[in-house]
Structure formats: structure tokens, C-alpha cells
Protein: Crossover junction endodeoxyribonuclease RuvC
Amino acid sequence: MAAIRIIGIDPGLRCTGWGLIESDGPRLAYVASGSVVSDASEALSVRLRQIFESLSEVLNRLSPDEAAVEETFVNRDARATLKLGQARGVVMLVPSLLGLEVAEYAPNAVKKSVVGTGHAGKDQIHAMVGHLLPRSAPDTEHAADALAIAITHAHCRTSVTARVLRGELARAAR
Structure:
């Protein structure tokens, strides 16, 4: 079985993190990570185009086999949630246009998969990403979160049991 290249994406309007890993059975290897940033002084439509173009360049350059995106959680600011949802739509569109299926994971499912608890803090997630991918060097917390999303997908992608677990994790996160 050949290694599978998985890109995890942490959507954001200001900063979208991405992280690429290779999964070869139980072995995970860090490939690359980074962030794409939109210009906050521009109109929303321009910012969404900036995310689209930058993320498209990353995926075209790195050629992932599979993609995973974090689901949006609803917060108290409906406008901010709507804008984040629009950025997330762009983030899901980019790999889809390349013919990749896009898996989705709730934030609590990512935490549970990487740390073991659905209510882990950012510092715990980043520490476990560093432990699981010792060569990783994410430049932002968004890139580290994207690597955690890719790790979650690597753990959940292969078996029927894992697919059932993914469904249970998604239900538990709600």
C-alpha cells in the first residue's frame, strides 16, 4: 500500500491554516504546513478570492490525495459565523475542484482524536501534533490545527470501525 497524502485545512477568513501529512498504515509523516492570509482591508469578495487563489496554488503544488476540513462551530456573533462559513465554503470548493473528496470533522472530534479528550486546549493539541509529527514546524496555530485535522482524518479514513467512530465523534461533538 502506497502512502496517502492528506491535507488538513483549518478555515478562517483572516488566516486559513493547511497541513500536509503522509499516512502509510499507522505511520504518519510531516510533509509541509503553512497559512494563507486574506487582506482585512479588502471587500469580502476579494478576500474570498484571495483564499481561493492561495489555497489552489498550495494544493496544485503539493498534490494531496485526500482532504479534510474542520467544521464551523456557531458562535454568538452571527455575522462572524456567516463570514467564516463563506470562507469554509471556498476552502471546501478548492479540493473538490481537483476531484478530491472532502471529509469534515467537528472541532471536538479533532481534539478527541489527537489528544483523547474533546475539550482539550490549543496548547495540548499543538503539543500532541509535535509529538505525533516531530519534524513539523507549523508557522501559525492555524497550521498546527490543520495538521491535527489531517491526523484525525488519517486515523479515521480506513476501516469500517473508524467510519463508525467518526460518526460517533461527530455526534458527540454536537
About this structure: The chain has a mean pLDDT of 88. The radius of gyration is 15 Å.
